[in-house]
User: Fold this.
Amino acid sequence: MKSVKNGLGLGSLALAAALLAAPPVIDSLGGLDTGATVHARNGEGGGNGGGNGGGNGGGNGGGNGGDHGGGHGQGGGHQGGQGHGNASVDRSGFGSVREDRSHGLALGHEKSHDKSHDKSHSIEGRSLGNNHGAIASALGSLNAAHASATARLNADPYSRVGLIAQYEEAVLEGRELSEELERVERELAELYEQAALADEDPETIAAEIGEIEGVLASLDPTTEEAQRLEEELDELEALRGAVNDSIAREDEIDAEIERLEGEQERLEGEVEEAARIEGESLAAAANKELNDEVVAELDALLGIAPEDDPVY
Assistant:
């Protein structure tokens, strides 16, 4: 993957923390020349911070939280928990099958992924509108985003324009990473269900099928009870087919789960790294408190505002 994948709302994670302690954040950019154009060194100069922000993390995944000065809190926490244990298999989709029949494998895979750079900014609170003077004043040093795409591409990485270019790249790459991670999670969820089916007992299912067939033989097929049992019989037949298929492909399914879990872990790390770069670059470029409206204006200026969060 690219070194910085830009994601739907990734900057949330490291964004606020970076701005809360601006000097350390800027230094963490690796040799960043923070002279008079960016921030005072050696503890001189006040650090701007404050506001609400936070990322939540849980399970066995990494949680990152950040405080973006001025109340622009963005949660980029990405957490995941995966458990393998013995429990009854949820047979939703196979109809009314007896619960006491199952002793299958419950594979818990719980993911909570706050989209990085989450655009939950309140549209109601925006007051910048089309007042170009107010917008320019609010953006401050971020007006450097007016530079052309070519200028941003060729800018010194530690200049205002260069820092904004890094922020833009991190946002876009983070969105791409987030989409890829969601795809992997969907595939894993399906595989976990298939793996759980492999732990079912085909003989138990076959015995239930035989029992229902015996009852049906003594019923008038036009009765409501007979029709209900026919439906249950169809569901059990479908379940038996799925179980047999999962048992036959058990090794293949396990190998694919292992592969995708490795890919998931890699993507989670890249999502967090993109969020860190996004937050630190924005904090260094802004060098002041920011709020939702200013960040939304910056994203609109760069042409990276999410489609579902228009700027008015």
In short: The longest strand covers residues 78-86.
